[in-house]
Amino acid sequence: MRIIHTSDWQIGKVYRTFDPKAEAVLQSERVEVVTRLGQAALENGAAAVLVAGDVWDQAHVSDRTLSLPLERMRLFPTVEWHLIPGNHDPHAPGGPWARLLERGLPRNVRIHVEPLPVPLGDGKEAWLLPAPLTRRHVLGDPTEAMGAMETPPGLLRIGLAHGSIRDFDSDGTGTRNRIATDRAAAARLDYLALGDWHGQVRIDDHTWYSGTPEVDRFGRDDVGQALLVELTRPGETPGVRSIETGRFRWVSVLKTVHGAGDLDGLEVALRRVDDSPQRVVLDLHVDGTFSLAARSDFDQRVRSGVAAAFAACRIDDSGLTVEPTADDLDAIDHAGFVRAAADRLREMAAGPAGPARETAALALRELWVLHAREEGK
Amino acid sequence: MKIRSLEITSFRKFTDGIRVSGFGDGLNILVAPNEYGKSTIVAALRGLVFEKHRARTEAVRRMQTLGSETSPSLALDFELAGGLYRLEKRFLHRQPTALLAGPGGRRFENDEAEEELQRLLGFREPGKQGANDESRGIWGLLWLEQGQSFARPELSETGRDAIRECLENEVGVIAGGERGTRILAAVETAMKSFVDGRGKPTSGWKGLLEKIAELQDSLLEARDTRKHLTEDLEHLEAFRSERQLLATDGEDRRLDDELAQLGKDVDESKLFEARLGEAKATLTLKESGRDAAEKELADRQRLEKEITAADSEAEEARLTLGEARKKTIELRGRKDAESQEERRLGERLVTVREGETQIGQRRKLFECRNTLSGLQEALEKAQAATAKADAVEARAHGINVTPAALQDLKQLEGALAKAQADRDALATRVLFSLETGAVRHVKLGGVPVTELRFESLLTSPTKVAIDGVGEIEIRPGARDIEEADRAFQEAQETLRGRLAKFGAESVTDSEGQLQKKKDLLADARSARAEIATLTRERTLVDGSRIPAGLDALKKKVTELSVAADDLEARGVPMASSRDELDSALSAAAKEVREIQGAIDVTRTRTDELASLLETAVREETTRSGVVGEAEKRATLAGQRLATRRGSESDGDLLTRRGTLDDERKKAGAAVTAMETEGADRDPLKALQARLARLEAARKDRQDRRQKINLDIAKLETSVSAQQGTGIDETIARKEADLGSLGTEKSLGERRLAALQLLASELRKAEAEAKERYLAPVTQRIQPYLAALLPGARVRCTEQLELEAVERDGVSEDIDILSDGTREQIAVLTRLAFADLLLGSGRPAAVILDDALAFSDSARLERMFDILTEASKKVQITVFSCRERAFERLGANRLVVEPLRGRD
Which of A98, B115, B470, B827 has the highest count of CB atoms within 10 angstroms of its CB? Predict the structure, then answer.
């Protein structure tokens, strides 16, 4: 049998560093990916989609956010969707799962809020062993009970859980929601579908993290993915294939530029990031030294220019130092009090690092802009 | 430029024409009194140079002498760049003219002359309204009219351009000035999108800050809501668990069973209690029946005793009643005897009192007559004395000389003596010494003389006739003799008339009359004193009083006479003596007292008997009542007893009492038996209390269930309402918004700091540039200022206007300086401008009309020094009316002389 393994949809996620329009696009795409998963299931003949937790980004979401993925799943009535709560949306009183139980679900959607084995499909081929989270952080292994779960003999046992199999937490305390590395073997699982890790990871032949279907942070260049799992008989290694589901690529670019000449190179490099820049979310870090004129050009060509080519763009130019040149200052004025002020600001901007230097540099940029505006009159 | 001479004809007060000359290269002065025309000279110079010859403006029309139509004609000789020029203008003429003659025979006429002059001196063509500060340019500042010198020197645009040209010659163009100003304005505009002039946030920036604050508040609120939602959910879970527990713990069933059993027990207990009650009621009934029979028996015995007692009491009372009646009769007899004796004594007392009255009347008659004899004698004497006194007083009042009148008469007598003496002194004294026998032959004034030797005083012509000889008329020679004689006659007549008024013959006679009057009045007074003694107030023997006075005495005498006569008429005999009357009266009184005593004794005894009689009668009545009462009681008791025995005989009553007592004993035994049985049972009250407690417990569980259901319903409603809003999403949204607004704020703050720094640096640089630019002006003022106010510095605005003076590090605005200092600095500034112009090869000359009026002598000295120093470079002309103050200026004096026809 074939199944689609996915996780970490995190519907309703808020993006803090983008403007509202870009954020709306990113949020919308996290919902649209459900449709693409359903299509992938149909296209690949998968009877079921297993969602390994974190369907929603928060425990208390609005009615609309709660409904958004369900309405997408409803569009694929022949596909059986199995969902379990994760650490972002644990099954707790008043949580999304409790609300769904009260409201009712589409016929093709099953949610599992108790660690009880259930038949997958008609139950003739496989049984599902879910390990739902009832709290954000569970001390101990949420899959512990899988070993003791009885399923009809001769049928496939498929585990569905959310947690860390390795210590992914940077603070090293990661004993929470921790899943035993050998859980698949210990619990006689033919496949253990895991969620929580946003990248796609193979733990062993029977244990995989699907990764998020739509990338939501910088740090990896791939688009979002899911897994197509093919299971034949109990005890046999399943066939696992990655399928691309994401729309956006989250790309980080770090560039050091010095002077107007490098600006051309930067622009070219940015345009080469992707053939479809509209599918790229860009994180640009620029450092180096610019003249006032070049700095102004940077704002013009990059901030207001090439950045518009991307779906969303975040620019950090705090490492960009402005060093006014003699030409810059001559352009402002050859003499006169404005020039005198510019000279003094340049001295300050060349002083020891600190807020005063930054303010002076910014003041020079302001002067440059105002001067340019005057020139334009 | 150096002025050499000025000619003025038909200009205001100078009708005949004058010529002002004697201008030296340096410092010049014209000192002349007020009204001399100094200001007219300055006005003429300004009009000649700056007004157009063809103009008919108000200013030009004012050039004409008042009431004259003559055309004003002006001429100026001046030196410029080493060349001599002459400027002539005729105003308000049919053919107004202008002529400018320059070195090398150059001549310009009319409009050309005006244009050339403007070019040479650097001022503008005046407009239709005539010359003004704008057209005069820098000259408006240098050629001062009266009263302008202490005003802050304000440059017109033309004047400012001239100075700027000079400055730019010296320090070059102020680079980027206008553009820099625009940039600075743009920076300030950009800053205004953050803060206003006072540093308060403005619209957009303020909006951002407010939005952040609002967002922070609403985030806190959302987190609070989230907290409440969590709490609500926890409570909901807890309530649901409790409801589950209430539904499954089996306590309801246990309570129901226990309550059912308790209900039965209570009913049984109630039935037993009812039966016991009934038994007790029977016992009570039997006890009360027996008690009633006992009481009836006792009542009958009491009634029998009552009858016996009442009978014996009546018998005893009847005995004492007889004794009381006997005593009453005896006392009544004794009382009647005493009353009879009292009546007899009363009749005797009346007889004795009548005798006593008769003696009293005799005594009264006796006293009347006695008193009357004394009073009648006094009355007669008093009446005689009164008649005498009246007569004497009448005589005295007949004499009307008074002491004052006498004094008057004596004065008249003195006046007569004086008048006589005056007359006699003027009279002619004729001494007669006749021989014996000649007497009968001599007549004086027709009257024969009688004496041989005598002296005659003649006051009027008087003839002395001598028989046989003839008559000799003697005429007194004194001039006033007639007047003196008349005065004497008048005095004599006055005295005589006055004496006649008093009936006196002479003054001495009057004096005697006055004495007589005094004597008579003394007699009258002694008579009146005697009357007073005789009619004094008296108290008679009977105590009655006669007031003082003759009338009262007379009245009393009459009364007494009438009373005595009346008694005698009634036959009252006159007693022989008072003693006889007294002894008779005393005897009668004694008898009265004795009878009175006897009456009193009798009356006391009667009263005692009456009192005893009253007591005896009362005793009799009481006894009689006691008898009646006892008889009545015995009758009543007898009737009651008979009634009771009628309804039930004593034998039947005794039988009934025995039966009832037996029944009572039986009922008592039944009650005791039931109480013994009840001791083993739970008391009804305890059962009822337990029942109530368990019912309350069951109700409490029901209430709790109901309340929990209600709470759950409420919480479910609340939670469901909150869940729909997606509070976690809201919080994440707000946190994100707050993060991006925070970034925006941080960027804004950095930009604002940069703009502020930029503005500050631009202003600083601009100030420094201005300072450099204005340096030539301040540098030229500075040496003069140092001489005037050591250590002071002057500051100019960019508009080349004096702004402030800095002394000892303190900046003082020009406007707050004293009038004197302000004027002095204003003059210095003008000198500095002139200096600057000359330094740039431009013409300049300074005219000060009536300047330095507010300067004290020390400052004036310093200003003189400054003017002297300045005049080394520029021609300075001073007009003043203060000869003494300005004599120390040491300037070249101008000459003003009548103009003789040049033409």
Answer: B827
